[in-house]
Structures are given as structure tokens and as C-alpha cells.
């Protein structure tokens, strides 16, 4: 139990903090006005980069924004799509950054997309096998679960450069195209840095979960 609290509770708390931080940063930066909406900023960024064929759609939800590589569409939440704020510009152009990665075959994105099926399988079936193996004393089954869960860790690790690069592209294009002034980049950074913390927390939690179960199984062998 001591090992559990040492390895798993801190990243779990960091995850809760990161979720609060991103919502807080988005709320505060939503009060800082911008010269255009999030959808307009993303459209300008995409068109300037030769990606006029990439669509932009509004979807329900809060912070439900994402880029769909299969449909080649940016899907933005109402607050981001119509919002004329620094928060809206930051999030919208971050998602546009993923479209740039897709168009230019950015290697970490290609690897991440290829890893999605394995990660989904590992997070579901892997944990089932792990719990069943531990519960019934079937060590080989538990190790199979650990191996499958390692795909989740791999996905989280490769996701970090993908998200960091999309944010860097967003800030660079917003300034270069004059959508924000140079001194306004700090507002965009507050939103994107808070979002980055959620990716770091998720990665840390996945890595330490894997470490915990590996150590648990190794200890059971003694």
C-alpha cells in the first residue's frame, strides 16, 4: 500500500490540478479580447499554410476541441469557434497545428495515430488481464496485461512532442500573421501551457502505473 501511495497518488493529484489549471486559464484568458474569433484565426492559419481544404466545424461541449485526421476537419467547441478571446485563438490554432502536422507527415503524429488501436486495447483488455491475473494468482496472465498496458505508456510518451509542437506552431503563426501582437503571446502561452500540464500529468500517471505493477509482480515472485 505504501508503494501505491508513493507512485500513484502524486500523479493522480497532479492530474486533478492540471484539469483545474486548464479550466482556470481558459476562463481567465477568455476575458482578454482578440481581434477575431477562434474559427477565423484557425481559418487564416490554415489558408496561409496552403490547407484550404481542411474544414472547420462547431461541435457541442466545453473544451471538446480536436482535429480529426480522417475527415481532415477541425472540430471546435462553441466557446472556441465563436469566441473572440485569447483563449479561443490559442486553442483553435493549436488544433490547426495538428492539421499542419498531418499535412506534413510529422513523424511523432504518424506514430501516435498508428499506436491508437494498441493503446485502446491495452487500456481495456490489458488492465482486465492484469487485475484478473493478480486476483487469481495467474502471474503469466498478469504479465500479459502489463505488456499490453505498456502500449498506453508508449502512446502517452509519443503524444508529448505532438502536443508541444502543435502549441509552438500556434504561437508562431499567430504572431507571424499579425493575428496577435508580440506582447499578447503571453496570454496564448498561459492557456497552452496549462493544457500541456494535462498531457504531462497523463504521461506521468501512465508511466508510474506501469512501474507500480511491474514492481508488484516482481515482488510476488520472491
Describe the 3D structure.
- Keywords: Membrane, Transmembrane, Transmembrane helix.
- This is Putative neutral zinc metallopeptidase.
- It comes from Rubripirellula amarantea.
- It holds the Pfam family Zn_peptidase_2.
- InterPro entries: Zn_peptidase_2 (IPR007395).
- The structure is a single chain.
- The protein has about 220 residues and is mostly helical.
- The chain has one domain (about 1-220).
- Helices cover about 75% and strands about 5% of the residues.
- It has helices spanning about 1-5, 10-30, 40-50, 80, 85-105, 105-135, 140-175, 185-220, and strands spanning about 55-60, 65-70, 75.
- A three-stranded mixed β-sheet has the order 1-3-2.
- Helix 3 runs parallel beside helix 5.
- The longest helix has about 40 residues, at about 140-175.
- The model has no long low-confidence stretch (mean pLDDT about 95).
Draw up the topology in text.
Layout: H1 2-7, H2 9-29, H3 38-48, E1 55-58, E2 66-68, E3 73-76, H4 78-81, H5 86-103, H6 107-136, H7 139-176, H8 185-220
Helix pairs in contact: 2-8, 3-5, 5-7, 5-8, 6-7, 7-8
Keywords:
222 residues; mainly alpha; three-stranded mixed β-sheet; 8 helices; 3 strands; 5% strand; Zn_peptidase_2; transmembrane; membrane
Amino acid at each position: 500500500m505504501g508503494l501505491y501511495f508513493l507512485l500513484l497518488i502524486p500523479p493522480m493529484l497532479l492530474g486533478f490540478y492540471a484539469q483545474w489549471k486548464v479550466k482556470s486559464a481558459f476562463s481567465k484568458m477568455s476575458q482578454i479580447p482578440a481581434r477575431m474569433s477562434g474559427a477565423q484565426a484557425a481559418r487564416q492559419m490554415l489558408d496561409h499554410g496552403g490547407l484550404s481544404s481542411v474544414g472547420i466545424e462547431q461541435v457541442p461541449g466545453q473544451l471538446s476541441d480536436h482535429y480529426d485526421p480522417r475527415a481532415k476537419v477541425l472540430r471546435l467547441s462553441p466557446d472556441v469557434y465563436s469566441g473572440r478571446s485569447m483563449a479561443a485563438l490559442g486553442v483553435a490554432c493549436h488544433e490547426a497545428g495538428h492539421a499542419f502536422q498531418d499535412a506534413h507527415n510529422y513523424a511523432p503524429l504518424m506514430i501516435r495515430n498508428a499506436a491508437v488501436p494498441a493503446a485502446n486495447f491495452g487500456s481495456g483488455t490489458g488492465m482486465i488481464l492484469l487485475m484478473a491475473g493478480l486476483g487469481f494468482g495467474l502471474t503469466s496472465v498478469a504479465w500479459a496485461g502489463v505488456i499490453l498496458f505498456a502500449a498506453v505508456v508508449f502512446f502517452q510518451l509519443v503524444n508529448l512532442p505532438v502536443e508541444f509542437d502543435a502549441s509552438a506552431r500556434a504561437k508562431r503563426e499567430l504572431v507571424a500573421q499579425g493575428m496577435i501582437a508580440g506582447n499578447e503571446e503571453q496570454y496564448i502561452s498561459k492557456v497552452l501551457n496549462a493544457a500541456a500540464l494535462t498531457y504531462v500529468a497523463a504521461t506521468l500517471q501512465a508511466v508510474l502505473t506501469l512501474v507500480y505493477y511491474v514492481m508488484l509482480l516482481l515482488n510476488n515472485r520472491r
